[in-house]
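Chapter summary example.
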Amino acid sequence: MGVNPVQNIVLVTIILSFALLEIFSGRHRNFRATRDDTKLELFMFVALIAVSQPLIFAVTGKLGSLLMPEQRGAWAHLPWWAMTAILLVGDDMTQYWWHRASHTPLLWPLHRAHHTAHYMSIRITYRNNFFYYLMMPGLWISGVLIYLGFGTVYLVYIVVKLTVILGAHSAVRWDEPLYRYRWLHPLAWVVERTFSTPATHWAHHALTNDDGIGHYKGNFGNLLFVWDMLFGTAKITRRYPAQVGLQDDLVYGKERWFVEMFYPLLRSRRTHSALAPGGRAVAQEEVDGDLARGLR
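The structure predicted for these 296 residues follows.
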């Protein structure tokens, strides 16, 4: 069972639309992305849509045919709203927990690449380690649900979800007018507690928590911010951090793109690296100490 090509066509169209907004707004001039940034983002995007997702859906489809052939399309009779609710729990809520778990020492090396970008843009949306998506529970659950008959509803669901996720990473802060105009505040209250927005997700990428905006130990939601509200990890400020990225990259230098993408097959040689043999996530206190000593 492969990926519906319509999904990728629509996805590319949405990405191009956001890209044009970033270009026409002039926000792209602030990226100052390196060649390594571009390679990591491009290769991970291609790997996800051409390798990881098709592979997962093919494997789940094959296993379904072998283990439960009589269940192919067995849930196709469910109404669209029921399928959507199941997908929100099976895909989006499990991705919340996967994202949250990825900020623990064990899984951080697979997610760290997503936070090494020093800019916010749609281009970083799929910037992760190659194995991050292969191990994502939501993709495997979605593959099973597609086998059970969710194919058409999944196509609509994933387009909506990806639009929200791309919008949350976009350099164009589409939610800003909601906070600027008082008459839109009631709408803002609902939107920011329901969906991921630039304000809440940029806070998750913040360089520091010391500004009262950053919240990289929370705001994990992808499509729905409801999960953060429900599980106590939400922080809403209606403001945007001045800087994003990782403090330890500023001190010790950035990792190479191929190490970020293919760890643990490839390991870092950098001092104090979570991607080095026996490495660990660098504590903020350690970074602050090295900054005070002028270590670069």
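To summarize the output: The first helix runs from residue 5 to 25.
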